[in-house]
Design brief:
Helix content: over 70%
Distance between the termini: 66 Å
Structural class: mainly alpha
Radius of gyration: 20 Å
């Protein structure tokens, strides 16, 4: 038996990324990393039926969830950008070292 349960934060995050057009713009690997890092900052909120959630959910509560996701998303973008810059610096340093070794 397979249960139909979902993390509501994941559903909302995917909707937000889709609404911003990022699902088509960003490379799949980066998008996966962005989603994982973002979701790891948020609590888990399991739901069974998405339609029930939309029906019973308070508008203010939904806006608060979206604010939480947006804040986590911004932190995740900064984190991934910082890690990319660090990795590029390390790769450049390794490349420079290899070139210097070839010269000597």
């Amino acid at each position: 038996m397979q249960l139909e349960i979902r993390n509501y934060y994941e559903v909302l995050l995917m909707e937000m990324l889709s609404d911003e057009g990022l699902m088509d713009e960003l490379p799949e690997d980066y998008l996966a990393d962005l989603c994982c890092v973002t979701l790891n900052q948020l609590p888990v909120r399991y739901i069974r039926h998405l339609v029930d959630t939309y029906f019973f959910e308070d508008y203010n509560e939904l806006q608060e969830l979206k604010r939480e996701i947006q804040a986590a998303l911004e932190k995740s973008r900064a984190f991934l950008k910082q890690n990319l810059q660090k990795r590029l610096q390390e790769e450049n340093a390794a490349l420079n070292l290899a070139e210097n070794n070839n010269i000597n």
